[in-house]
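Q: Got a minute? One more chain.
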Amino acid sequence: MASNIEVTKNANESTANLIRRFTKRVQGAGIIPKVRKNRYYTRIKSENVRKTSRLTSLSRKAKYEELLKLGKIAERPERGARK
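A: Always. Here it is, folded:
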C-alpha cells in the first residue's frame, strides 16, 4: 500500500499552493479511500482461537451457575429491563 507522493516547491510558488498540489496528488493516487476502507477492518479469527474462547466462556458460565446454585453469589439483575 506504500505510495510515495512527492511534490517540490517551484520558484515563486506559495506554500498554500504547494499544499494544494500535494492534496490533489494524494486524492489522485486514491490513498484516502484505501485508508478509510481499512480503518475498521478486523481479521477473521482462526478456528482454534474461536473454539478456545468459546470453551473458556462456557466454563466461566458453568462455574457461575454452580456458585449461584450453591448460594455463594447473588443473581445479577437483568440489564435494561423495564421496571
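A: Residues 50 and 56 are 10 Å apart (CA to CA).
Q: Perfect, thanks.
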